[in-house]
Amino acid sequence: MSEILNLDGEKLTFEDFKNENGITYWWASDLLKMLGYPTLKAFQPVLDRATRTFVSLNIPHYENIIAISREINGTLIQDFKLTRFACYISVMNGNPKKVEVAEAQLYFAQQTRKFELFFENNNEIDRLLIREELSEGNKSLASAAKQAGVLDYAKFANSGYLGMYNMESWRLAKKRHVDKNKLFDTMGRTELAANLFRVTQTEERIKSKNINGQPDLESTHFKVGREVRNIVMENVGRLPENLIQEKELPNIKKELKDGYKKMLKDDLTNKNKK
Hints:
With 274 residues, the chain is of the alpha+beta class.
C-alpha cells in the first residue's frame, strides 16, 4: 500500500513529505498525521519508544530524532526531524490497533524489503525494549536482595526460575540448547514480559514486606515465580518452559543496524543523483 496519507481529499505518499537539507528527513508533525495521531503530545510516547530503540541498538538517537523549533502559519511549534530509519522505527512503535498505523506498518514492511528488513509488526521491537527493561530490572533486584541480606545470589536467582519453570536456569538452558547466559535472547515477547513481571514483583515484595535473610528471600522469589507460572499457564495455555522460542535478539539487532546503514546510504545516493 503506497498511499498512506489523505489530506483534504488529496492522496499523498510517504515520499511526498521528504525533505532534504544536509540530510534526508521527514517532519514528525507530518508523520503523526499519517499515523492518525491528533497532536504531537499524543505522538510523543511513540517517539520516546523510538528513542529507546535507538539506545538499545547503540545508534545515536540525537542524529535521527532531531528536536527543532519551527514556525508554521506564524506560530512557533516544537517539531522533530526524523530520518527514514527513525520514521520506520516510529511506525513500528505505533499502536497497531490504529488503522493508519497498521497500514503504515504494511507499507514499510513492503518498502524495507530492499534493505533486507522483514519485520511486519512491532513484536521484535517490543522484544528488544522489554529485554532492556529486564536487564535493568535484574540489576535493581540484585541490589534490593543484597540490601536485604542475600548471601548466595545464584541460589536466590535460581529460586525464581524454580518457581516459574520448575527447573534452574542451567537446566532450562540445556532443555533449549542455548548458553545459560543467553536464555533471554530467544524468548518471545510474552515470556520476556513474564520474566520482567517476576523480577519487578519480587523486588516490590521484598521491599513492601521487609523480607530479609537468604531463606526468606529465596522463598519469596520462588513464590512470585510460581504465581507468574500460573498466570502464564492460565492466559497462554502453555507452561513457561514450553513457550515457543524466537529469533535471537543479537541477530535482530544486527539486522536493524545493517538496515539503518543501508537506508542512510540509499538516501545519500539518491540525493547525489539529483
